[in-house]
Amino acid sequence: MEGVTIGRAGILFLGLLSIGSSSCRPAVGRNDEVETIRATERARLKALVEADLPRARELHADDFQLVTPGGQTYSKEQYLGDIQSGAVDYLVWEPDSAIQVRALRDAAVIRYRSRLEIVVGGEKIPLQKYWHTDSYEKLNGRWQVVWSQATRISE
Fold first, then answer.
1. Could you tell me if 127 and 137 are in contact, meaning their C-beta atoms sit under 8 angstroms apart?
2. Residues of 67-85 as b/e, b for ≥16 C-beta within 10 angstroms?
3. I want to staple 6 with a disulfide (CB 3.0 to 4.6 A). Which of 10, 25, 42, 99 is the partner?
4. What are the pLDDT digits (tens) for 2-57?
Protein backbone atom coordinates (compact mmCIF):
# COMPACT_ATOMS: atom_id res chain seq x y z
CA MET A 1 0.00 0.00 0.00
CA GLU A 2 1.87 2.99 -1.25
CA GLY A 3 1.84 6.09 0.95
CA VAL A 4 0.44 4.34 4.04
CA THR A 5 2.36 4.83 7.27
CA ILE A 6 1.67 2.94 10.47
CA GLY A 7 2.86 4.65 13.65
CA ARG A 8 3.84 2.98 16.90
CA ALA A 9 0.22 2.79 18.09
CA GLY A 10 -0.78 1.03 14.86
CA ILE A 11 2.03 -1.47 15.20
CA LEU A 12 1.07 -1.98 18.84
CA PHE A 13 -2.59 -2.56 17.96
CA LEU A 14 -1.77 -4.98 15.14
CA GLY A 15 0.63 -6.82 17.41
CA LEU A 16 -1.97 -7.23 20.12
CA LEU A 17 -4.49 -8.51 17.58
CA SER A 18 -2.05 -11.02 16.13
CA ILE A 19 -1.07 -12.52 19.48
CA GLY A 20 -4.49 -14.02 20.09
CA SER A 21 -6.84 -13.79 23.02
CA SER A 22 -5.27 -16.40 25.28
CA SER A 23 -1.85 -14.73 25.15
CA CYS A 24 -3.30 -11.32 25.98
CA ARG A 25 -5.00 -12.44 29.16
CA PRO A 26 -3.28 -11.15 32.23
CA ALA A 27 -0.65 -13.51 33.53
CA VAL A 28 -0.22 -14.17 37.23
CA GLY A 29 0.98 -10.89 38.73
CA ARG A 30 -0.55 -8.82 35.92
CA ASN A 31 -3.93 -8.41 37.64
CA ASP A 32 -2.68 -5.29 39.45
CA GLU A 33 -1.59 -3.81 36.13
CA VAL A 34 -4.99 -4.56 34.56
CA GLU A 35 -6.74 -2.86 37.49
CA THR A 36 -4.41 0.12 37.11
CA ILE A 37 -5.43 0.43 33.45
CA ARG A 38 -9.13 0.29 34.39
CA ALA A 39 -8.60 2.89 37.11
CA THR A 40 -6.70 5.09 34.64
CA GLU A 41 -9.63 5.00 32.20
CA ARG A 42 -12.09 5.86 34.97
CA ALA A 43 -9.83 8.76 36.05
CA ARG A 44 -9.67 9.95 32.43
CA LEU A 45 -13.47 9.99 32.14
CA LYS A 46 -13.76 11.88 35.43
CA ALA A 47 -11.17 14.44 34.29
CA LEU A 48 -12.99 14.99 30.99
CA VAL A 49 -16.44 15.38 32.62
CA GLU A 50 -15.01 17.79 35.20
CA ALA A 51 -12.90 19.58 32.54
CA ASP A 52 -9.85 18.97 34.75
CA LEU A 53 -7.36 19.83 32.00
CA PRO A 54 -4.13 19.31 33.97
CA ARG A 55 -5.23 15.78 34.90
CA ALA A 56 -6.55 15.08 31.38
CA ARG A 57 -3.21 16.15 29.87
CA GLU A 58 -1.40 13.63 32.10
CA LEU A 59 -3.66 10.80 30.95
CA HIS A 60 -3.47 11.45 27.18
CA ALA A 61 -0.28 10.69 25.22
CA ASP A 62 1.19 13.59 23.25
CA ASP A 63 0.28 11.83 19.99
CA PHE A 64 -3.25 10.93 21.17
CA GLN A 65 -5.93 10.73 18.50
CA LEU A 66 -9.70 10.49 18.95
CA VAL A 67 -12.10 9.21 16.30
CA THR A 68 -15.63 10.35 17.18
CA PRO A 69 -18.86 8.45 16.42
CA GLY A 70 -19.30 10.84 13.48
CA GLY A 71 -15.87 9.98 12.06
CA GLN A 72 -14.07 13.23 12.91
CA THR A 73 -10.53 13.00 14.22
CA TYR A 74 -8.98 15.12 16.95
CA SER A 75 -5.42 15.43 18.19
CA LYS A 76 -4.75 15.78 21.91
CA GLU A 77 -4.46 19.55 21.65
CA GLN A 78 -7.60 19.93 19.52
CA TYR A 79 -9.63 17.70 21.82
CA LEU A 80 -8.51 19.17 25.13
CA GLY A 81 -8.65 22.68 23.64
CA ASP A 82 -12.31 22.15 22.74
CA ILE A 83 -13.01 20.91 26.27
CA GLN A 84 -11.21 23.91 27.75
CA SER A 85 -13.16 26.36 25.57
CA GLY A 86 -16.49 24.68 26.29
CA ALA A 87 -17.02 23.68 22.65
CA VAL A 88 -17.12 20.12 24.01
CA ASP A 89 -18.79 19.66 27.40
CA TYR A 90 -19.29 16.17 28.80
CA LEU A 91 -22.32 16.16 31.10
CA VAL A 92 -22.29 12.40 31.75
CA TRP A 93 -19.72 9.78 30.76
CA GLU A 94 -19.70 6.57 32.73
CA PRO A 95 -19.10 2.94 31.91
CA ASP A 96 -22.23 0.79 32.04
CA SER A 97 -20.35 -2.47 31.46
CA ALA A 98 -17.13 -3.92 32.75
CA ILE A 99 -14.00 -2.40 31.24
CA GLN A 100 -12.43 -5.32 29.39
CA VAL A 101 -8.63 -5.20 29.17
CA ARG A 102 -6.20 -7.03 26.88
CA ALA A 103 -2.74 -6.22 28.20
CA LEU A 104 0.75 -7.18 27.10
CA ARG A 105 3.80 -5.66 28.77
CA ASP A 106 3.58 -1.90 28.06
CA ALA A 107 0.52 -1.94 25.79
CA ALA A 108 -3.17 -2.57 26.31
CA VAL A 109 -6.47 -2.35 24.47
CA ILE A 110 -9.66 -1.72 26.42
CA ARG A 111 -13.31 -2.00 25.45
CA TYR A 112 -16.51 -1.09 27.28
CA ARG A 113 -20.01 0.32 26.88
CA SER A 114 -20.92 3.70 28.33
CA ARG A 115 -23.73 6.10 28.97
CA LEU A 116 -22.74 9.49 27.60
CA GLU A 117 -24.40 12.90 27.40
CA ILE A 118 -22.50 15.74 25.79
CA VAL A 119 -22.81 19.26 24.42
CA VAL A 120 -20.88 19.83 21.18
CA GLY A 121 -20.79 23.27 19.61
CA GLY A 122 -23.78 24.34 21.70
CA GLU A 123 -25.89 21.33 20.61
CA LYS A 124 -26.90 18.98 23.41
CA ILE A 125 -26.70 15.32 22.46
CA PRO A 126 -28.99 13.46 24.87
CA LEU A 127 -27.94 10.54 27.03
CA GLN A 128 -27.07 7.62 24.73
CA LYS A 129 -25.07 4.42 24.86
CA TYR A 130 -21.72 3.95 23.11
CA TRP A 131 -19.03 1.34 22.65
CA HIS A 132 -15.50 2.58 23.35
CA THR A 133 -12.26 1.00 22.19
CA ASP A 134 -9.05 2.59 23.41
CA SER A 135 -5.39 1.69 23.15
CA TYR A 136 -3.07 2.47 26.02
CA GLU A 137 0.70 2.49 26.29
CA LYS A 138 2.86 2.64 29.37
CA LEU A 139 4.99 5.70 28.66
CA ASN A 140 7.61 6.90 31.13
CA GLY A 141 6.21 4.56 33.76
CA ARG A 142 2.55 5.57 33.50
CA TRP A 143 -0.40 4.43 31.41
CA GLN A 144 -1.67 6.93 28.82
CA VAL A 145 -4.37 6.61 26.19
CA VAL A 146 -3.00 6.80 22.64
CA TRP A 147 -6.03 6.09 20.47
CA SER A 148 -9.70 6.33 21.30
CA GLN A 149 -12.74 5.47 19.20
CA ALA A 150 -16.43 5.60 20.09
CA THR A 151 -19.39 4.08 18.28
CA ARG A 152 -23.00 4.96 19.13
CA ILE A 153 -25.18 1.95 19.92
CA SER A 154 -28.46 1.99 18.00
CA GLU A 155 -31.31 0.66 20.09
1. no
2. ebeeeeebebebbbeebee
3. 10
4. 444 455 555 444 444 443 443 444 443 478 999 999 999 999 999 999 999 999 99
Torsion (CA) 149, 145, 78, 89 in degrees, nearest 10: 70
Query: 27-152 domain in CATH 2.40.30.10?
Result: no
Counting every residue, how long is the chain?
155
Helix spans in the chain (H): 8-19, 21-24, 31-49, 53-59, 76-85
Q: Indicate the pTM of the whole model.
A: 0.81
**Closest-CA residue to 13 (of 153, 149, 152):** 149
H-helix segments, 20-155 = 21-24, 31-49, 53-59, 76-85
Sign of CA dihedral 125, 130, 135, 137: positive
